[in-house]
Design goal:
heterodimer; A: 7-stranded mixed β-sheet; 4-stranded antiparallel β-sheet; about 0% helix; B: mainly beta; globular
Chain lengths: ~110, ~110
């Protein structure tokens, strides 16, 4: 079984630009969650999608958005980038129909805003 | 509401000695609990999980954890540390709605 695939692995953007990150889940996983990881704030939950619908949302500004496609692939978008958006963005997927299943994480996208 | 507290931000052990990473949780429900490991610039890998079956859970790479309801703890242990165990470890609690809360992480250093 292929793992969770996140693209790109590394990204450098300028303040004010926008960026789109992609996550392809493990086959059969319909739930996709996004996390932001920074040294100061640790892992922070952004949002979760299940069957193309946003199921949960963390406490991030509206500049952070996401979507999920019919094949369960998900994208997250950050508009009007700020220096503080520099982080490792992790995608985590699971079989959302079963309770108590842990996530499978991708390797992340390292975003640097300059 | 639920939360998880990792009692040590950094643990340092010598190779070949036991590892103990401490985690306490708070939950209004019967929780599911997980331990994840993260190596530098990598995603998180599931080490083990507790989902109301046996209270002693065995995971990968020789790690295990014991669920103690009376102490609201889920400490991670390994009898003998290896250099490759050096990483960041996260304790996670999940409620029946699959709302997962991560601890702040414990950085494990293994000295030769």
């Amino acid at each position: 079984k292929a793992g969770v695939t996140q693209t790109p692995r590394y990204l450098i953007k300028t303040r004010g630009q926008q960026v789109t990150l992609s996550c392809s889940p493990i086959s059969g996983h319909r739930s996709v969650s996004w996390y932001q990881q920074t040294p100061g704030q640790g892992l922070q939950f952004l949002f979760e999608y299940f069957s193309e619908t946003q199921r949960n949302k963390g406490n991030f500004p509206g500049r952070f958005s996401g979507r999920q496609f019919s094949n369960s692939r998900s994208e997250m978008n950050v508009s009007t980038l700020e220096l503080g958006d520099s982080a490792l963005y992790l995608c985590a997927t699971r079989d959302g129909s079963s309770l108590n299943y842990g996530y499978t994480f991708g390797s992340g996208t390292r975003l640097t805003v300059v | 509401a639920q939360s998880v507290t990792q009692l040590d931000s950094h643990v340092s052990v010598s190779e070949g000695t036991p590892v103990l990473l401490r985690c306490n949780y708070s939950s209004s429900y019967s929780p599911s609990l997980f331990w994840y490991v993260q190596h530098p610039n990598k995603g998180l890998q599931l080490l083990l999980k507790y989902t109301s079956a046996a209270t002693l859970v065995k995971g990968i790479n020789g790690f295990e954890a014991e669920f103690k309801k009376s102490e609201t703890s889920f400490h991670l242990t390994k009898p003998s540390a290896h250099m490759s165990d050096a990483a960041e470890y996260f304790c996670v609690v999940s409620d029946p709605n699959n709302d997962m809360r991560f601890g702040a992480g414990t950085r494990l250093t293994v000295k030769p």
